[in-house]
């Protein structure tokens, strides 16, 4: 009894309503049996042909009407969600396990699912045909492509409502996994199709967040632009497009190094180059528009350095604490820039829902940090989750003690780093960041459990990982006693796995699962390095440069107006002040 | 089930579960468009339909008719790339 067997797999409501439908149908079927026998559609199409002069639209298959009862739309949606498009990890796992032919057990052979009951059968060996004939269930859905087949018409059918549902569900599922594809097509295939023109250029990219990759069809206006600008530029692995120096306008290297990192953030680049920003600001002082312009400049193919005076002016206008020709902190600039971009994105409309912003900055850079404060007396835990754009990490050599580590920090190798000659790794810093910290007797907190002021411990973990993780190594110490730069070498990897620092990992440790199951299959929390900002000099005066990644694995050093090729070793041996990693695989809602 | 078909089933499951199958499908689609395979096959389908008459062709007929030619027309480079991708995926998930 497959119905019972699969009932637990799919949503209960679905199975129930499907089964009741099946019962209703058997009652009704005696009347329409003639329709099932023989080729019902011959009659039908003849009728259609007679009216062909009047009817312009071809009539679809009439056998779907039997299916369109009760909440058939919802049922069809569930099938698309669970077994056809499978946008989430859970539905995919389910699909992987359950999608086999119920007759012969094969997983190939164009598997179809009956639309009337829970039955999967292969098309090639006609097991789904047998089922359709025996049960008189005349509609089935192709589990690979989502087409719907009518066994009476003996053909795939194109029903407007069903097509609509299929399209909507496909879009939703691509929204769930969409961006993964931009990163995974590492060969940058779509980029090779870029069309560049002298003045305006059309950029062909896999759309950033949440849309299916579709073939680009130029609009009338775009065709005209292409005709007027006949110059085309192709992206090849050794072309320099996307690389551009930035003139230093007077101690503005703090800005230049961040601009280099931002313009090489894959998702941000895709967003701006596919012309996604629709400005809603009245004045022409929108920083998002300026970024958009900046991306055009970077990817225009011009080789002379760009002069970012407009950007600097906008920064001075919108982040007054950075105005003037003094030296500034690159990290401070990054946060200010993200903040202004976030505010300008939809001109303050997000005020309606301050907790959930959907701007491109928040979609890419915002993560959630969980803070658990545990009362030492009653062991009650109070948990808060705060959004973050960057993670500031303490370094050994600062006046706050770096170690002792939390229990469990036994120096096991995480992220493939070994402790060569006792140097500190990024993982060490992250482990310290997420260790339980005793707040001490001077910082008693009122416990919500036992309603008294008690000593407590606090632990930070990652609740939600951002798509781009910015790590800020706290190299500038401003304590009461001293102000200095910490030059301790911290090694950082090209690929970083954030799993050990997740709130979920901590929970599983708490539940007694001490062996951290290093799930090699789990790629959800893996990151790749794509930009590094460095500071040379002292606390008082110095210079910022950055390394950026281009074409998957080529690295370049950006020193204001000068860009030079760099090796991976140059990057990994550098001191590191800001480290930018992006997720390798994306799956989110 | 033979050992080989068990292996096939296990690999297929993993590919679906990790979403890799969809990615491969998308990659293949793009590659086939890029190399002109899609246009060639489209033209062939049109020929078949013209020859038999629109009223007498179902998707099934078309599939049977064009499959051998379609298979033969896939460039070796595309097959190789897909194979490499699957290999790399399996190497990465070697616990199967």
Automatic annotation (TrEMBL), chain A:
Top-rank lineage group of the source organism: Eukaryota
Locations listed in the record: Nucleus
Main location (coarse class): nucleus
Pfam family, one: UCH
Top-level class of the enzyme under EC nomenclature: hydrolase
Boundaries of every UBP-type domain copy: 59-176
Protein biosynthesis keyword on record: no
Region (Disordered): 26-46
Annotated catalysed reactions: Thiol-dependent hydrolysis of ester, thioester, amide, peptide and isopeptide bonds formed by the C-terminal Gly of ubiquitin (a 76-residue protein attached to proteins as an intracellular targeting signal)
Residues of the USP domain: 244-584
InterPro entries in alphabetical order: Papain-like_cys_pep_sf, Peptidase_C19_UCH, Ub_carboxyl-term_hydrolase, USP, USP_CS, Znf_RING/FYVE/PHD, Znf_UBP
GO cellular component, one term: nucleus
EC number annotated for this UniProt entry: 3.4.19.12
Alphabetical UniProt keywords: Hydrolase, Metal-binding, Nucleus, Protease, Thiol protease, Transcription, Transcription regulation, Ubl conjugation pathway, Zinc, Zinc-finger
Record-level GO BP terms: protein deubiquitination; proteolysis
Similarity comment: Belongs to the peptidase C19 family. UBP8 subfamily.
UniProt protein name: Ubiquitin carboxyl-terminal hydrolase
Organism whose genome encodes this protein: Anabas testudineus
Source species taxonomy: Eukaryota, Metazoa, Chordata, Craniata, Vertebrata
From TrEMBL, chain B:
GO process terms (BP): chromatin organization; mRNA export from nucleus; protein transport; transcription elongation by RNA polymerase II
Main location: nucleus
Subcellular location per the Swiss-Prot or TrEMBL entry: Nucleus, Nucleoplasm
Pfam families for the chain: EnY2 (PF10163)
One annotated GO molecular function: transcription coactivator activity
Record keywords: Activator, Chromatin regulator, mRNA transport, Nucleus, Protein transport, Transcription, Transcription regulation, Translocation, Transport
Domain of life: Eukaryota
Residue runs in coiled coils: none
GO cellular component terms attached to this protein's record: DUBm complex; nuclear pore; nucleoplasm; SAGA complex; transcription export complex 2
Role played: Involved in mRNA export coupled transcription activation by association with both the TREX-2 and the SAGA complexes. The transcription regulatory histone acetylation (HAT) complex SAGA is a multiprotein complex that activates transcription by remodeling chromatin and mediating histone acetylation and deubiquitination. Within the SAGA complex, participates in a subcomplex that specifically deubiquitinates histones. The SAGA complex is recruited to specific gene promoters by activators, where it is required for transcription.
Family designation: Belongs to the ENY2 family.
Subunit structure: Component of the nuclear pore complex (NPC)-associated TREX-2 complex (transcription and export complex 2). Component of the SAGA transcription coactivator-HAT complex. Within the SAGA complex, participates in a subcomplex of SAGA called the DUB module (deubiquitination module).
Protein name as it appears in the record: Transcription and mRNA export factor ENY2
Source organism of the structure: Anabas testudineus (Climbing perch)
Lineage: Eukaryota, Metazoa, Chordata, Craniata, Vertebrata
